[in-house]
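hiii so my PI (J.) wants the whole complex modelled not just the main chain, which honestly fair. so below is everything: two entries, each one labled with what it is. i double checked the lines twice but i was tired so who knows lol
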Amino acid sequence: MASEIDETNRRDFLMIATGAFAAVGGAAALWPMIDQMNPDASALSLASVEVDLSPIEEGQAITVVWRGKPVFIRNRSKQEIDEAMATKVEDLPDPEARNAAISDDAPASDVNRTKKGKENWLVLVGICTHLGCIPKGQRIGDSKGEFGGWFCPCHGSHYDTSGRIRKGPAPRNLDVPPYEFISDSKIKIG
Amino acid sequence: MSHESTYKPNSNFEKWMDERLPIIRMSAEISSFPTPRNLNYLWTFGGILTFCLVVQIVTGIILAMHYTPHVDYAFDSVQHIKRNVNFGWLLQGIHMVGGSMFFLAVFVHMFRGLYYGSYKAPREILWILGVVLLLLMMATAFMGYVLPWGQMSFWAATVITNLFSAIPLIGESIVQWLWGGFSVDNPTLNRFYALHFLLPFMIFGVVVLHIWALHVTGNNNPIGIDVKGKQDTLAFHPLYTLKDGFALAVFAILFAWFVFYAPDYLGHPDNYIQANPLQTPPHIVPEWYFLPFYAILRAIPSKLLGVIAMVSSILVLFILPWLDTSRVRSAKFRPLYRIFFWIFVVTCLGLGYLGAKPPEGNYLIFARLFTAYYFIHFLIVIPMLGLIERPKPTPNSISESVLGKSKGGGGQPDAVPAAPENR
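here's the output for the full assembly
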């Protein structure tokens, strides 16, 4: 190769083409090995649950499991709803609704976190938005925090009766999962 | 490494590394390793086998993330992998077909060694490590086959572990120790899973020794004569990396054909029935790569002797370097050995065919004839041939056989295509 050192020849082309082919093939072979760790078909098929709300009396709450996560369902009292309605969005650390059913920039007013005509039902993913603990406030006797909603004992986050962060390290309001009323007293989450 | 090191650290970093962990020197020496210039495509199976091992380890670790080693869940978890897990059908298919491809490659690799006399001095240890690798592979493949917990899995586990019951006096205790109970059951499945995970890493370790031994003696080659100097060799890279790479690509086409078009062709449909300890399938056969050994086992009408014959059929390979009395390595220059080599190939294929047939009538007669010849080949034919055979004259050197005798001027002779770097 002494005399043709700078000239691009057939051999260079073949070397580069072979290398590129091997690199693309290797990268393509890598994808199945990465994707196999994603949620599989059996996990996705468990993506929705139906919940009968009729046994839940006013003021009571239940926790159901959706996609392996706790979902809080609370039948709020009149007083709790009024408190939530009265809170101004400007006073909230997180002003966004965090409701899967409406747009991301909707304000975190109580109506944006419930369904119209069903304002007594509050449905939330029961995972603290700080570091993933489950907040207290579901059981009778639990501390509900300073704002009457939920209190996360791990790092002291207080949520109000609309599940919105009011005090503590959590950055976001509790998420409202996608759900719909499939009858007057039955919801489908997911 | 047996060859003189030509590596010179270029940068300050390389010098610094070279005095602490000479890993760059090691890679440089591996890539410049002097390799006989006449290796044919049968020498690419070492690289293909390394590829197979890596594929089995990588896909195996992935399958382990989704598999459940419990008698109640194992079968379903494998179905779950094939049906639900993202690309599980592909990864499980690769692992399952990969076992067969691994054995296909190792058999070609071994017959290559037999034909070209690669087991002879000074490569005895290299060969023995290879036989150790074969035994480890067989153990790993057998235990892996048990994990899907189908009917064939269960009854293979039962039959193979029962081989140990042939051992006089302590046989029964050994079998119970292997089972962790009084039949193949959950403890058996659990320990087979743990060992199936462990053994590939032991194989990897022995492969390192195998390659180390190879780099001490250097490659054998198709004419079986020693490398005499620089003119006989080429650096491993780039010629042999590319030759290995090309062969690997062709091998991968066959591999991919099975994975995508016939993943179950090499398996047995009964293994898609969940294990039932109360019912043996009417016709038990091992995976194809065990068939010749299975045929030997069944050819002997005595439990203990059958097991001894089957085990000996592999153990005899350990002493092969000392059974062969011929000083010429390559069958190319051994007109009689070449005939007997092909008779031996037919014997092995015949045993493989008969291993899949019921042990009765003519099948049994032929299985016995082939079994007898298998041992006659190693214990009588090979030692005798070296004494009576008259080998053909071997070339003076590898370079002479490749390049032809140099014609006066000392330049490259016409028989060789123009120097490849100028094309």
